[in-house]
Predict the 3D structure of the following.
Amino acid sequence: MHRLKIFTSTSRFWAPLKNTNGNSDIFDVMQTQMCRHVASDAGEKKLFTPGPLGTSLTVKQAMLRDVGSRDVEFIKTISFIRSKLLDIAGVSANDYTTIPVQGSGTFAVEAVFQCAVPRQNNNKVLILENGAYGKRMGKICETLSIPHHIESFREDKAVDAGRVEELLKKDNSYNLVSIVHCETSSGVFNPVEEVGSIVKTTSPNSSYFVDGMSSFGAVPLDFKKANVDYLVSSANKCIQGTPGFSFAIAKKDKLSQCKGNSRSLSLDLVDQCETLDKTGQFRFTPATHSMLAFKQALLELEEEGGVTGRANRYQKNRSIIKRGMKELGFKELLDDDISGYIITSFLFPDHPNFNFQQFYSRLNDKDQVIYPGKVLNTDCFRIGNIGHLFPQDMEHFLVCAKQVCQDMDLKL
């Protein structure tokens, strides 16, 4: 904000100077150069991370005003967001509803678990885990004292749908089956549609919960084919908003069965939904600025061509990184058939001069920010392909990465 104020006051300063002598050329040049300098400075670093992500200037600008949480304008904004998210999901408002939740994506994940599973001790959850975010689901259930079974799969492989079918044939009494669509600790895409079909046919009384945190808005998903009952995501992922709130898209008939289940007041999805439906307002203070930014982000997603258009850009970003890092000698963690286009994991090279902290810091010094550490058992690092990144950004990243490799004397 301080930089923005400097830019604004400076812009106003040039205008009277131009009017005093009638010759605006030199002042136009000076103002243009200053604009470029400030814009470059304000642009900050490029984020090649799983989130939060880089956002457009227009999304940032949408937050530069205050609105009351109970003003008519903001109530309309909430309604627009709830409706638009159903359009992106490709589902009907007759069958599904959107419930925004204050807080990060994990808040929405926890909200589903603690609402969708009744409090009685004979209820339980099946968690399909192949990375850090599946493990987090287990931690949530453990903290909430929800009986659960974690079925773990290799972190460099997708969830095995055949194994899921075996588990449910052996025991089809699970109240909830959960899976992560894009496990961003590695980048793997899990077969959520195939697993959803298995859940419906093998364990018809189970609800199906998809963590679409890093996929929703950029990875097509057929809710009907996948039999999705609950899906969660966050404002600051593929829709390219800013952090502040998350949301659950829930099947209405399933949600209606959850009344009284909640173990939390603030994370009660049923109460939140009923209040929003009745008054158009949040029960407690919402992230007003973040929601204004998200509305703008939704408009920009539509302008880009919706899920398909955004997927196309992310896929182009991914192909550039894949090609360029291979030319530098880096090897990917995942096989092509399961490696999605949200984030790409690369193995630490077996080279005496490679030190990840140095590699990360040198890239960071060049304003190229990758995720600062590993979350898997395997030694690897991640480069995100999502957010306000374009092919030219990926090409520039590769130029920087090549220079860093040269500076570290990494001949891979």
